[in-house]
Each structure stands twice: as structure tokens, then as C-alpha cells.
Amino acid sequence: MNNGNNPDLKTIYKVIFEWEDEKEEKWLEQMAEKGWRLVSVAPCVYKFQRSESEKVVFRLDYKMSSDKDYQEYLMLFKDAGWELFATFSNWHYFKIKPENKEVPEIYNSSKSKAQKYRRLLKILPGVLALVPPYWLLFSPSFGFINYGKNSTFTGFLLVLHILFILSILITVGVALKVWFKIKKLESESKE
Length: 191
Known about the structure:
With about 190 residues, the protein is of the alpha+beta class.
């Protein structure tokens, strides 16, 4: 999808899950080869600007920006030649131009790559911690909200309940997929 009248800007809406970061890396590499430089990332929204076609390698890494070693982490990548060009929800988008057709990696083993996904799983308890307060506030059995006979309000709360339950199911589903990816990577490292 193009942005208005400017053919040099492109917005693409694409769903890529947390465990599909390698798929996202390859797609971004293909976009760069076609002459589209990534400008920004948001949930399911990628903004590109027309540029020269370039052969670059993209790698995504998950690291909490609140970690005490965050600046050291960024410096390590910079010293290795990686350019941080976007961040989104603690996902870091790095790129580098490969030399001599050798594709650099940020992880040298399946075991170390599994650690990236373990860091990602650490956010799950925070998301699931929202369940008890939600049910305390919105469950009719606790009586904090008077549902009464207002059908519009009751309908709104029903939609809210459905969305909340769906978001919890999606979160648990994502966590399971990431966990299975961790187990696969760890089994590869034992071989």
C-alpha cells in the first residue's frame, strides 16, 4: 500500500509473530534488494522509503532496554559493525553489509540463540498478572460494576470480555510457540 500521493513511501501491513523473526529478517532483506529501506516498525505496520537497492543482512534481537547492561549491549553490536536502525517493543533491528558473501551471525550457536527467546518469555508473567485485577473489576460476581439493565453497557462489557479472553489465549499461544522453538534450538545444540 502506498502512502497517499508519494510513490517514494510505502506502508505494508503484515502480521509476523515473535517466533518468526528469521522470516521477518529475510523479508526485510528482500525489501532492501528491491530498493525499499525500512523507516519504522509498529505492531503489524512497516514503513519503507524508496532507496537504492542494497544487499544487507538483517538480524533481530530481543533485549529489554531497561536492563543495566543495555548500553554495553548496543556498543557490542556497534563494535561488530552492526547498525541499529529500528526498535519496537524491545525488539532491536540490526543491519550490516556482508563482506565477501559471508553472512555474519549475532549468535554462534543454537544454545545462545535460545537465550534470546528465553528473554522474550520473561514478559509473560507480567501479561498474565493482568488477569486477576481484570476479573476483580469486571466480573459481576464481585459487584464492583453494576451491570443493571443498560443493554449498551452490558454489550460493551461482553465485547471487552471476549477481547480480553482472546488476548490471553493469543499470549499463551505465542508463549507456547516460543517455548517449542527454545526446545528445538536446545535439542539442536546437543546434537
